Amino acid sequence: MAGKEDLKLLGLLVSPFVIRVRMALSMKGLNYEYVEEDLFNKSELLIKLNPVHKKVPVLIHNGKPICESLVILQYVDELFAGRAILPTDPYERATARFWAAYIEDKLCPAWIGILKAKAEEERAEKVKETLAAIEHVEVAFAKCSNGNAFFGGDSIGYLDIVLGSFLFWFEALRRMYGLEIINTSKTPLLAAWAERFGGSVEAKEVVPEADKAVQYANKLHAAAAAAAAAVKLVSSE
Ligand SMILES: N[C@@H](CCC(=O)N[C@@H](CS)C(=O)NCC(=O)O)C(=O)O
């Protein structure tokens, strides 16, 4: 099936959620058209195809949209032959889904909260939540990898993509706030895994430099500051 499908991806180069999809498409050997969205000025196509969340990624397969990165990963894995992304064993598959949900529900809002925090106290709280969540993921790595290099065994799989897509943002947070979310003393297994993930062909193909994330974070902060200043101006009139 690979190569004959009409695949288009609405994305953002620094979005970890988009990176997940790009890694999966590349692992399946699929060609696709990539369209960069401006999230400060969303396209009509994005709003039409993802009217609920209005977020990227949106994969358009033969004209039909699929939204939400984890849903897209599973869709791509179920539909296209080639290298498996999710584990094939039902128990391992369920376990991988459990940890993906944990990463989405706990780790993701916590680290994004560090970036979006408006005050130091709020940021410190989000740092605490992030570090607590990542310690659980360290335990998950020990169980899922079973002594192998990756969550998925000896090669990159579903959870590697799900968590690995955050790593360049973790590096950006280190540069911006001096934070070490994954470190050799508290999360040694993840620290070694992160090195392997970063050095992999799969990651090198689509993961941008942390600089790009820092630049985007600065853009987000500037937009938030301008919005807050505008609200202040209106309320003082
Ligand atoms: N749960 C979604 C998250 C997607 C997401 O947050 N995308 C961001 C870019 S990193 C976005 O499109 N934000 C636009 C907005 O919030 O309006 C997924 O896994 O696809």
TrEMBL record:
Q: Name one GO molecular function term.
A: glutathione transferase activity
Which keywords fit this entry according to its UniProt record? Cytoplasm, Transferase
One GO cellular component this record assigns the protein to is: cytosol
Enzyme class per UniProt: transferase
> By its UniProt entry, which Pfam families does this protein fall under?
GST_C_2 (PF13410), GST_N (PF02798)
Name the reaction it catalyses.
RX + glutathione = an S-substituted glutathione + a halide anion + H(+)
Q: Please tell me whether the keyword Transferase is annotated for this protein.
A: yes
Subcellular location(s): the record lists: Cytoplasm, Cytosol
Tell me the ranges covered by the GST N-terminal domain, including all copies. Answer: 5-84
One GO biological process term is: glutathione metabolic process
Q: Which residues form the GST C-terminal domain?
A: 89-220
- On the tree of life, the source organism's domain of life is Eukaryota
Q: What is its EC number?
A: 2.5.1.18
Q: What does this protein do?
A: Is involved in the conjugation of reduced glutathione to a wide number of exogenous and endogenous hydrophobic electrophiles.
Family listed: Belongs to the GST superfamily.
Identification of the protein by name: Glutathione S-transferase
Supply the source organism for this entry.
Miscanthus lutarioriparius
